[in-house]
Amino acid sequence: MMLGRRHYENGHAMIAFGGLNLILIYCVPATGADAIVRTVAQSFAAPQLFFFSGLVVASLSFITLRFGKNQSLLRSVRPRSLALRSALVIISSVFYFIAFRKLPFAEVFVFIALVPIFAAFLSGPILGEQVRPQSWPALLASVVGMLLLHPEGIVVLNSAHLCVILSAFTGAGALVLARHISRDEKNTLLQVFHPNLAICVVMGAVLPFVYKPMDAQDVFLIASYASVFFIARWVLVLVLTKMKAYVATVLMNLQFVALIIAGVVLFSETPTLGLMLGAGVIMTSGAYIVLDAARSDRM
Questions:
Q1: What are phi and psi of 227, to 5 degrees?
Q2: What single string gives the DSSP state of each residue in 25-67?
Q3: Per-residue pLDDT reduced to its tens digit, 56-109
Q4: Looking at residue 149, what is its pLDDT?
Q5: Would you say residue 26 lies in a domain?
Q6: Number of domains into which the chain is organized
Q7: Any residues with CB less than 8 A from the CB of 142 and at least 6 apart, and which?
C-alpha cells in the first residue's frame, strides 16, 4: 500500500516537474512574441498582424501534422469545445492587441496576472477541479497586487484597462477549455491549428479595410512573431495536459518578470514603485498556490 502510494506520488511529481520545465520553456518564446506585438501594434491594425500570423501558425501546424505521427488528422474528438476555444482565442487576441497599443508594456501583464483567478473560477464548473479554500486568499491577494498599481482607485482605469481585463477573462476561458479538450484529444497540435486558422479567416475578412503596405522589416517581424508564437502555444497546450489550469497560469506569471525587464531594456520604460509592489504580491501569492496545489495532490 505504501509502495503504491509512493509510486503514485513520484509519478505525479514527475508530471508536475515536466510541466514546470515546459512552463520555463514557454516563457522564452512567449516573451519574444509579446515584445514583437508591442512593436507591430504601433504601426498596424490588429487584423493585419493576426491574419498573417494566423496564416503562418496554421501552416506550420498543418505541416507538422502532415509529417508527424498524426498525419492529416485534422478532426477533433471535441469539435464544439474546440470551436468555442477558437472563438475565445480570437476575442482575447483582439482585446490584448488593443491593450498593448495603449498601455505600458509591463502594466498590461499585471492585469494579465488576473488570468489565474479567472481560471480558478472556471475550473470548477468546466473541469471539476475545485480550488482548495486555502488557495483563495492567495488568489485574492493577486487582485490586491493589481490594485496596488493604481493607488488613486478604480476611477483612474480607462477603456484600455477594460480591454486587458476582458482579454484575461476570455484567455483564461480558452486555457481552461484547452485542458478540458486535452483529456480526450491526444493530438495537442490541433489546439494550435484550429484557433489560428479561425483567426486567419476572421481577420482576413476585415483585412482589406485596414491593410497598410509592409516593408521587409515588417514582414520579418510578423514572421518572427508567428514562429515564436507557434512554439509558445504548442508548449502551453502540452503544459495544460500535465497541470491544473489555474496552477499552470500562476506559473506563467514567471513571464511577467521577464516582461518588466523587456519593457525597461527594449522600450525604456521605468517601472513605478506600485508596479513593483504589485508584481511582488502577485508572484508571492502565485508561489503559495503552486505549493498548496502540490499538497492537495498528495492527499
A1: -65, -50
A2: HHHHHHHHHHHHHHHHTTTS-HHHHHHHHHHHHHHHHHHHHHH
A3: 999 999 988 887 665 546 778 888 999 999 999 999 988 988 887 887 766 776
A4: 58
A5: no
A6: 1
A7: 113, 114, 116, 117, 281, 282, 285, 286
Contact 104, 263 (CB under 8 A): yes
CA 211 to CA 225: how far, in whole Å? 18
Amino acid of residue 83: A
How many whole angstroms separate alpha carbon 231 and alpha carbon 236?
A: 9
- Residue 94's domain spans which residues? 46-298
Residue 286 lies in a domain: yes
Q: Which of 287, 277, 280, 261 is nearest to 34 (CA)?
A: 261
pLDDT band at 4 (very low <50, low <70, confident <90, very high): very low
Looking at the chain, how many residues does it have?
A: 299
Q: Which residue has the cell 486535452?
A: 182
Number of Cβ within 10 Å of residue 297's Cβ equals 15
The pLDDT tens digits for 73-87 are 677 888 899 999 999
Q: What is the pTM of this model?
A: 0.79
- pLDDT, tens digit, 9 for 90 and up, residues 205-240: 999 998 999 988 989 989 998 988 898 888 888 888
Contacts (Cβ under 8 Å, ≥6 apart) of 63: none
Residue 130 lies in a domain: yes
Compute the distance between CA of residue 26 and CA of residue 34 in angstroms, rounded to an integer. Answer: 12
Helices (H), 103-244: 105-112, 115-127, 136-147, 159-182, 190-210, 216-240
Whether the pLDDT of residue 2 is over 60: the answer is: no
**66 and 225 in contact (C-beta within 8 Å)?**
no
In a domain, 250, yes or no: yes
Instruction: Note the pLDDT of residue 7.
Output: 42
Which residue is it, cell 509591463? Answer: 106
For the CA atoms of 127, 92, 106, 53, the dihedral, rounded to the nearest 10 degrees, stands at 120
